[in-house]
Amino acid sequence: PNNLDELAQRISTCHLCDLSKSRTQSMSGFGNPNADIMIIDYTISLNEDNTNSYYTGRSGEILTNMIENVLGLKTEDVYFTHAIKCKPLNSNTPSNSEWDSCKDYLFSQIEFVKPKVVVTLGKDAYAKIINEDEDFQSVRGHIIDFKDYKLIPIYHPNFLLRNP
Predict the structure, then answer these.
(1) Residue 116's pLDDT band (cuts 50, 70, 90)
(2) pLDDT value at position 52?
(3) 10 burial via Cβ count (<10 Å: 0-12, 13-18, 19+)
(4) Of 11, 32, 46, 152, which is the most buried if we count CB atoms within 10 A?
(5) 96-113 confidence digits (pLDDT tens)
(6) Which one-letter DSSP state was computed for residue 93?
(7) Strands 117-121 and 37-41
(8) Predicted confidence (pLDDT) per residue in 34-89, tens digit
């Protein structure tokens, strides 16, 4: 693909893994295609899949508040995507082969958007981006020079809901 729209079309018709057989839809990404900040969640939640919307539920409210109140931006100012583009079966953890099917889509999105900062939500998203299972606690909240951008791994909003 030559741009985000072509990439979104490919994602919507993707059948590279078993997740395509059970998905309601794929979710390629949302937001400003020229954003300075890209937020990457690992998987699509049941709520996001059911509504075909980003920033849903209580964790979506927390994320929206973080973007608006901490960063001083609007959600439309950032680009939001998932590492895995379809909801996992029965909310299971995606397999390595499912990640392998999606990772080129994700890295293409990063190349098209060209963010200055990539924020990963949770350990799984961070580990997949850097291709290592590093100790998340030691890097969480730190600014990491990675490729052509700054990488900031943070807790997923769901973690914050479970551990206020």
Answers:
(1) very high
(2) 83
(3) middle
(4) 11
(5) 899 999 999 999 999 999
(6) P
(7) parallel
(8) 999 999 999 988 888 888 888 888 889 999 999 999 999 999 999 999 999 998 87
User: Rounded to whole angstroms, how far apart are CA atoms 13 and 121?
Assistant: 26
Please check the confidence at residue 24 and state whether its pLDDT lies above 80.
no
The encoded tokens of residue 18 equal: 């078993």
Over the range 121-137, which residues count as b (16 or more CB within 10 Å of their CB) and which as e? bbbbbbbbbbeeeeebe
Q: Report angle CA 129, 131, 135 to the nearest 5 degrees.
A: 90
**Dist CA 45 CA 161 (whole Å):** 15
**Cβ(63)–Cβ(39) under 8 Å?**
yes
**What pLDDT is stored for residue 25 in this prediction?**
81
Q: How far apart are CA 100 and CA 119, in angstroms?
A: 21
